[in-house]
Structure of AraC family transcriptional regulator of arabinose operon:
Amino acid sequence: MDSNLTNQVVAADFSFHRKPFNMTMPDGFDTYLMRWQTDGRCRARIDDELALVEAGDLLIFPPGQFYELRIDDEVNAMGELTIESGDYHIFFKGPWADAWWKSKKRPSKIRVPIEERYLSLFRQIVLEQRRVSNPYPEISDYTARILCLEVDRLLSEQPTTTPKTYLAYRMKNYIEENASSMFKLEDVAAHVGISVSRAVHLFKETFGTTIMQYTMDVRLNMAKERIVFSPLSLEDVAETSGFANYTYFHRVFRSRFGQSPKQFRMNSRTPT
């Protein structure tokens, strides 16, 4: 998509319902709508059916598409009937949004892990829209663009969404987001609610590498960037890249790249 095209966030907010709520828009909206369910359940019209929408489901509707949303009693985890539904919703439009929508076919409902990388984008857009005086509307514009592209990346990484691959990609995201801190296999498995043995098998089956090897790859890439572009000492690079100590970092770095971190920094900064 042409980055010079304009895009406008018309409205954005977070809603939480504990009472019945129904909305029907036969002619849809005059904007695009992203609605991300973060709590509870509801039902929405998808492909001519009133489908269940659960936490983690992202709905995307183009302008003019029939829209129906129903929030009624649903059975919670305790088997009780309750009304509880929370969601972020963003209305946006413009030539950039049109080009993005036409660039590929997308399902109306997409599974998006409820993780900080996505929550932060929705929160930022909502906060920008709440500003009474906002001399920089480009911030919400470009944040919305990033959100759209993150959705596309999620779709490209999960060409065939199954319960197994969904869990594997959630583990992968967890590793990427937490690689700079120390964590164990148990933490990765607990993040998706499965046993360590199943997590290890599922990750290897999906990505062809182990959880710890992928973690090491992410940490070494982080360290390489910080060695070249940051003023951090090599000891601080090791610590902030998730390594327990510099001695271990030095050994695995040399094994992977054939030179010590110090040599790598000197070679990378030497004018050619």
